Amino acid sequence: xxxxxxxxxxxxxxxxxxxxxxxxxxxxxxxxxxxxxxxxxxxxxxxxxxxxxxxxxxxxxxxxxxxxxxxxxxxxxxxxxxxxxxxxxxxxxxxxxxxxxxxxxxxxxxxxxxxx
Length: 116
Known about the structure:
Helix content is 66%, strand content 8%. The protein is mostly helical.
């Protein structure tokens, strides 16, 4: 579950959400700030998102990121599909019976035609 809180991860490293929030709130050391800024310089969309978050107050930025994370998790969660039973749909049963009868009838007609 902790990997969900990492907004970026590849072979080079990752930027945890807490580190990003600390950067936005100005709680990082100059070295850590530089590390985050280097990462942001390499990223396009994430850099734009951080620029938008910088314009918000710290509490509002955290609330916004929490809300977005919650919405993303809800959308990405696998949805349970309700399977309808054949017995719930009498037309489907009748259609299957008619198709089977047509197939059997076609088979019989073809066999009789081949005997002649």
